[in-house]
Write a structure and sequence with these properties.
It contains eight helices and seven strands; from the N terminus they run ααααβαβαββαβαββ. The protein has 246 residues and is of the alpha/beta class. It has one domain: Vaccinia Virus protein VP39 (Rossmann fold), CATH 3.40.50. A seven-stranded mixed beta sheet has the order 3-2-1-4-5-7-6, sandwiched between helices. It starts with 9 loop residues before the first helix and ends with a strand.
Length: 246
């Protein structure tokens, strides 16, 4: 099941996404028309400790739309998988929280971002980080391997969101949790057919629709927690969600 771009194929949507996020990885100083970097993370409620601990080179290409770390507590020894890890800011925070006995795995489709995430792990001196280049609908990880999956502004980019949620459900252990921040549709108007997939407009869906997709994938206790105030267009807004694999 896909939600194809009305102005082109799924492949074209993925190409535009990779092109934009390659630019963000290589040229973070550019104005992309939406919030990014350390100050954006500060506005979204990231703890000052993480803002200070992670070097600017890790924050500069971070395009957070919310703060998944406000949705619960990450314990030492956990395995955390970050879907759409981008430049690795959330991945490095996760790796620091799970400690040497835990593991943090980042998944991203854009080669320039996976390279930057690997570099972020090295820069932070983290030995418990792994980054894999893959589509979120086909993750090269074993069944029931993760305690927690996080994501930040990435699932809305997929034209196959139900498949992404099924893949997350597959890799989570029983009792595992999903915490994510994403861009959703704000109000009753459908996004413009000219909206960009890469700018989180064409792929945005209503919060209630996101909850339905989570339930159909098998998740329990799925809920939207709060709006974050982040927006990429007049029809979009950031929101945080959490769900449980029974």
């Amino acid at each position: 099941m896909t939600e194809a771009d009305p102005n082109g194929s799924v492949a074209a949507a993925e190409e535009s996404i990779c092109a934009l996020y390659t630019e963000l990885a290589l040229h973070p100083e550019r104005d992309f028309g939406w919030g990014k970097g350390k100050e954006n993370a500060r506005l979204l409620g990231y703890e000052a400790h993480w803002l200070d601990l992670l070097p600017e080179a890790v924050w500069e290409s971070a395009a957070a739309v919310g703060n998944p770390f406000g949705l619960g507590r990450i314990e030492p020894g956990m395995t955390v998988v970050d879907f759409g890890c981008g430049a690795g800011a959330d991945l490095c925070i996760s790796a620091s929280l799970v400690g040497e006995c835990g593991w943090a795995v980042g998944i991203d489709l854009t080669p320039a971002m996976t390279a930057k995430a690997r570099a972020a792990g090295r820069l932070m001196g983290l030995c418990n980080v792994e980054v894999r280049g893959a589509d979120m609908t086909a993750v090269p990880l074993a069944d029931a391997c993760a305690d927690l999956v996080i994501s930040n502004g990435a699932i809305n980019l997929s034209p196959a969101k139900p498949c992404v949620f099924k893949e997350i459900f597959r890799i989570l252990k029983s009792g595992g949790r999903l915490w994510f921040a994403d861009v959703v549709r704000d109000g009753t108007e459908e996004p413009s057919s000219s909206g960009s997939w890469a700018d989180c407009v064409a792929g945005a869906v209503a919060p209630a629709r996101m909850i339905v997709m989570l339930a159909r994938a098998g998740f329990a206790d799925a809920e939207m927690v709060a709006f974050t105030g982040y927006c990429t267009a007049p029809t979009t807004i950031g929101a945080t969600f959490r769900a449980l694999k029974p």
